[in-house]
Amino acid sequence: xxxxxxxxxxxxxxxxxxxxxxxxxxxxxxxxxxxxxxxxxxxxxxxxxxxxxxxxxxxxxxxxxxxxxxxxxxxxxxxxxxxxxxxxxxxxxxxxxxxxxxxxxxxxxxxxxxxxxxxxxxxxxxxxxxxxxxxxxxxxxxxxxxxxxxxxxxxxxxxxxxxxxxxxxxxxxxxxx
Length: 177
Hints:
The protein has four helices and nine strands, in the order H-E-E-H-H-E-H-E-E-E-E-E-E. By secondary structure, the protein is an alpha+beta fold. The strands form three sheets. It has a four-stranded antiparallel beta sheet, sandwiched between helices. It has a three-stranded antiparallel beta sheet with strand order 7-8-9, with no helix packed on it. The mean pLDDT is 85.
């Protein structure tokens, strides 16, 4: 409910915003656009529901997302593993490797750059950076890509280049270059 973009969308569509577990009575002609909630509402009806709670849960979890994307675009993903020993081999061979401690984290939370092969922490997900690092956010609606954003350094930023790219280091998702 606090999302600025959700408010803008609701205003542009001249529609309501509702909490998933409050007193809302679902009507057949209502179109529900789920804005990032993975909990199933008490009034949930699958018809006229865009972005189901299951889809949100899948998109929010980095490992589930990678596993799903592997089935659809296997050649265009970062290398990833859940096996610590494999990630240690990557580090030993000189690759840039990240451990993700939070599968549902955002904004760089839970990410560690792994710089030596003997680290003791276990991470549920490891990713290996190969070549040029580019990051995209892809919006899909009914199996069609409807919007693509690329993460880039904010224009005019004076913050030094970093391997972790988030708002703190002046990285933002951009449209139209």
